[in-house]
């Protein structure tokens, strides 16, 4: 995908993240899809790949609302299969984007 003269296409390029399709990942996937309205999930045997144009955010607070328990965002690494995009993370958010 190439950027036009305004760079619009470059900022809307898709990022993705994929998780193992298991019980531990379900709350994370649900939170990701709720927080990123343009995100789409593709289910394959044993894997869930989530694509999102521009930027994808995983919020600790959203996962905690779904599970009703404290959640450390570092836990997503356990079931993370692959990702595409620049990673930016802190204790509250894990995000992927192609921008800086």
UniProtKB/TrEMBL annotation:
Gene Ontology molecular function terms on file: monooxygenase activity
Pfam families (UniProt xref): MmoB_DmpM (PF02406)
Highest taxon in the source lineage: Bacteria
Similarity field: Belongs to the TmoD/XamoD family.
Protein name: MmoB/DmpM family protein
């Amino acid at each position: 995908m190439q950027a036009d003269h305004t760079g619009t296409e470059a900022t809307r390029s898709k990022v993705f993240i994929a998780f193992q399709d298991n019980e531990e990942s379900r709350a994370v996937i649900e939170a990701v899809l709720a927080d990123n309205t343009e995100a789409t999930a593709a289910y394959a045997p044993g894997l869930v790949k989530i694509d999102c144009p521009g930027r994808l955010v995983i919020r600790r607070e959203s996962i905690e609302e779904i599970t009703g328990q404290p959640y450390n965002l570092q836990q997503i690494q356990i079931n993370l299969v692959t990702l595409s995009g620049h990673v930016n993370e802190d204790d509250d958010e894990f995000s992927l984007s192609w921008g800086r």
